[in-house]
Write a structure and sequence with these properties.
The protein is an all-alpha fold. Helices cover 72% and strands 0% of the residues.
């Protein structure tokens, strides 16, 4: 009876996160556009389903109070920056008790593959029928080449996550992924995701070679990469003109100067300050850490940093540590991986950090990845 009730309430979560994945991927597509009112209705239904799931989980009064206090931070941030994704992220994380992360990853794969297949098919039909001109950097009807490359990158990472308990399968999956990333780079010309995937692949090879050894440095880097990158971003905001970073700035498509400019216009915020639209209207600011400084408030960075450290302490899969490292690096160049609707990693981090052994994933599976 208990197992039946667990399955029933878990269905609510699966339906809700499926809807949120649809919304997140829809927001990246130039052809599959949901009506804004319908999109808000989907968000509302998803939040209601997740709320019912939380109540069915029967947390203690203390847990509900702690959830509420932290929830107020994310709710305030969503209201202040005029974007719902902060509170949606948080609700997805606190309602994940008894849910298998592998099942969520499979749902994410289905949604991403569907959007990629539909967008690509329509794009190439339109190119072949001369409905649109051929582009040197192809978007496949996503908003831009970087968005296209990002969808492919995180789709491959999803498959790697599913393979994490078998190092040979991880090597095979990541190698196939490398080939696909080179093809995607040839199509889109997007460098950031390509370089970061190469870094991930090198880390996986290193772990495979040293699979019988405890590589403490990987664990350390996964714990503190986010802090190093935040401090680096803050130093750039403060001292960019004195650091002689013009060549690096050019290689990063002007991202360093944009961080400096945004900081000098909007200043340092502990909690959410400017609306996201006001930031975007002034400058294309892709760096998540700088966005935390000038828009989201550094409290958002601090919460994520604490969760990553808790995740690192409880996690025993080196491949997941490596993915977290690359996730943190990705946030230096693109802010969108913070959205669970587009990237599964914040959910994976939050689940382990907040729930630990209470998560739905089995704790005694066969051999772990390395």
């Amino acid at each position: 009876m208990k197992d039946k009730l667990v399955k029933q309430k878990n269905v609510l979560y699966y339906i809700a996160i499926f809807m949120i994945f649809i919304i997140g991927n829809n927001n990246t597509s130039s052809i599959l556009n949901l009506d804004p009112i319908f999109r808000q209705m989907m968000y509302g239904i998803a939040v209601i389903l997740l709320g019912i799931k939380i109540l069915c989980d029967k947390h203690s009064l203390k847990e509900y109070i702690l959830m509420g206090i932290l929830g107020l931070v994310f709710l305030y941030t969503s209201i202040k920056v005029d974007n719902i994704f902060f509170i949606v992220n948080y609700i997805l994380i606190i309602s994940i008790s008894d849910i298998k992360i592998s099942e969520i990853v499979k749902i994410d794969i289905i949604v991403k593959m569907t959007f990629l297949l539909v967008n690509s098919t329509i794009y190439y039909i339109d190119v072949l029928t001369n409905q649109i001109p051929f582009e040197e950097r192809q978007t496949l009807y996503f908003h831009n080449p970087n968005t296209t490359m990002g969808v492919i990158f995180w789709l491959i990472v999803d498959f790697i996550i599913l393979s994490k308990d078998n190092y040979r399968k991880v090597m095979k999956t990541s190698t196939i992924g490398l080939i696909l990333m080179f093809v995607a780079y040839w199509i889109t010309g997007s460098r950031t995701a390509m370089y970061l995937y190469i870094i991930l692949y090198i880390l996986i090879i290193l772990a495979y070679i040293l699979r019988n050894k405890n590589i403490k440095v990987i664990k350390k880097i996964s714990k503190y990469a986010i802090d190093v990158l935040f401090i680096t971003s803050l130093i750039i905001c403060l001292f960019y003109p004195k650091l002689n970073l013009q060549e690096v700035n050019a290689a990063l498509s002007g991202r360093l100067y944009k961080s400096y400019w945004a900081y000098n216009k909007f200043g340092f915020n502990i909690v959410a300050g400017e609306t996201l639209d006001e930031i975007v209207d002034n400058v294309i600011l892709d760096n998540f850490y700088t966005r935390s400084i000038v828009c989201y408030g550094i409290i958002i960075y601090l919460i994520l940093s604490i969760w990553i450290k808790k995740f690192s302490k409880k996690n025993d899969s080196k491949v997941l540590d490596m993915i977290v490292i690359v996730f943190c690096l990705f946030l230096f160049n693109e802010s969108y991986p913070y959205l669970i609707s587009r990237c599964i990693i914040p959910l994976m981090i939050g689940q382990k950090a907040l729930l630990g052994k209470k998560e739905g994933e089995a704790q005694s599976e066969s051999k772990k990845f390395i």
